[in-house]
TrEMBL record:
N-terminal signal peptide: none
Enzyme class: transferase
Taxonomic superkingdom: Bacteria
Origin species: Rhodococcus indonesiensis
Keyword list, A-Z: ATP-binding, Carbohydrate metabolism, Galactose metabolism, Kinase, Nucleotide-binding, Transferase
GHMP kinase C-terminal domain span: 276-351
Protein name stated in the entry: Galactokinase
NCBIfam families: gal_kin
Upper classification of the organism: Bacteria, Bacillati, Actinomycetota, Actinomycetes, Mycobacteriales
GO molecular function list: galactokinase activity
């Protein structure tokens, strides 16, 4: 059963009728450009084939009813008075409704299904937000062309920032809504402009392996917020970090922690530009050293890696991966490894053995294929 069919079936079981439609939005993996979105930098994510689906039917009595097997629990509430959102997932839906404020909205029944791994740093939250936002936009007559999708992404970001309390920078929501099959999304986080950059690993005999370390990735424990505050303080002292030409220019920062944080942002933006050049030159093998350098920076300068992520990256490289790094906000979650297609199984096996030897959770794996953004799927 597809995820869309599962959402529709869950809707029928819970509400005894068919939804008006089902909308799907993908998770994402960021090829390069981590922790630079909120600094107005550049990032290069791609939408995954894993999706979250929202089956939706409008109501006219001010009631919001939410069900989900994948996220757990059932929620019932009056608009403006949400209650019982098990595990907090309902807050994302309520936040999107509040931030989007769809014309004429007076309640809804919504059933959610998903195969985006939760807590893996693959943006299950943005997939949920984007699926609901696109559904409400289409049902309410809001624009869903590219400028409209940019506006939906901004509403989803406000939902996560203001309603859920996670200070994300918008990359995830932009990718979920504006991704394109066969392309990475070059996102200018200062202007919101996007460019779709073709990515063809298969014809080069390469594959992008995603390693879910099964170490939960949590952004609400304060560490992510502290990194963002560090970057904002460095920006306050120096001006836009995107305009800082060299790491040497960061010497004006006397605080060594701020200097390391800013150093990551400056070098990471340069790595995005190098990655885009590699893809434009149809030379994706050049991505390997770029991924390696990014992991060192995230581990040492930004200090957001973990023992699970380092184990996965080190084992992948030792088994022949061309490059590897942690992805997402950090402190758990997933890593990626650029591999020769013939080496994928060996790399996965090496990562699994390394985790077992260190008494770490057993990792899970998926292959990343650049896929389409949010769309109506039933």
């Amino acid at each position: 059963m597809t995820v869309a069919a599962a959402a529709a079936a869950g809707f029928a079981r819970a509400f005894g009728a068919a939804p008006e439609g089902v909308w799907c939005a993908p998770g994402r993996v960021n090829l390069i450009g981590e922790h630079v979105d909120y600094a107005g930098g550049l990032c290069l994510p791609l939408a995954l084939s894993r999706v979250t689906a929202a089956a939706v039917r409008r109501r006219d009595d001010g009631t919001l009813r939410l069900v989900s097997e994948g996220f757990g629990g059932v929620s019932f509430g009056r608009l403006g008075q949400p209650e019982g959102h098990t595990g907090g997932w309902g807050a994302y839906v309520v936040g999107v409704i509040g931030a989007l404020d769809p014309p004429g909205f007076a309640g809804a029944d919504i059933a959610i299904a998903s195969d985006v791994p939760i807590g893996a740093g693959l943006s299950s939250s943005a997939a949920l937000e984007a699926a609901v936002a696109l559904a409400l936009a289409e049902l309410s007559g809001l624009p869903v062309d590219d400028p409209g999708r940019a506006a939906l992404a901004a509403a989803c970001m406000r939902a996560e920032n203001d309603y859920v309390g996670v200070p994300t920078g918008g990359m995830d929501q932009q990718t979920a809504l504006r991704g394109r099959a066969g392309h990475a999304l070059l996102l200018d986080c200062a202007t919101g402009e996007v460019e779709h950059v073709p990515i063809d690993l298969e014809s080069h005999g390469l594959a992008l392996l995603v390693v879910d370390t099964d170490a939960p990735h949590r952004l609400v424990d304060g560490q992510y917020g502290q990194r963002r505050r560090d970057v904002e303080e460095a920006t306050r002292r120096l001006g836009s970090l995107r305009d800082v030409g060299t790491v040497a220019a960061l010497g004006a920062l006397t605080d060594p922690v701020l200097r390391r944080r800013a150093g990551h942002v400056v070098t990471e933006i340069a790595r995005v530009r190098a990655a885009v050049a590699a893809l434009r030159d149809d030379a994706p093998e050049r991505l390997g050293p770029i991924l390696d350098a990014a992991h060192r920076s995230l581990r040492d300068d930004f200090e957001v890696s973990s023992v699970e992520l380092d184990s996965a990256v080190d084992a992948a490289r030792a088994a022949g991966a061309l490059g590897a790094r942690m992805v997402g906000g950090g402190f758990g979650g997933s890593a990626i490894a650029l591999c020769r297609a013939t080496d994928v199984d060996a790399v996965a096996q090496a990562v699994t053995v390394a985790a077992r030897e260190r008494d770490l959770p057993r990792p899970k794996f998926l292959l990343a294929t650049a896929s389409a953004g949010a769309r109506r799927c039933a």
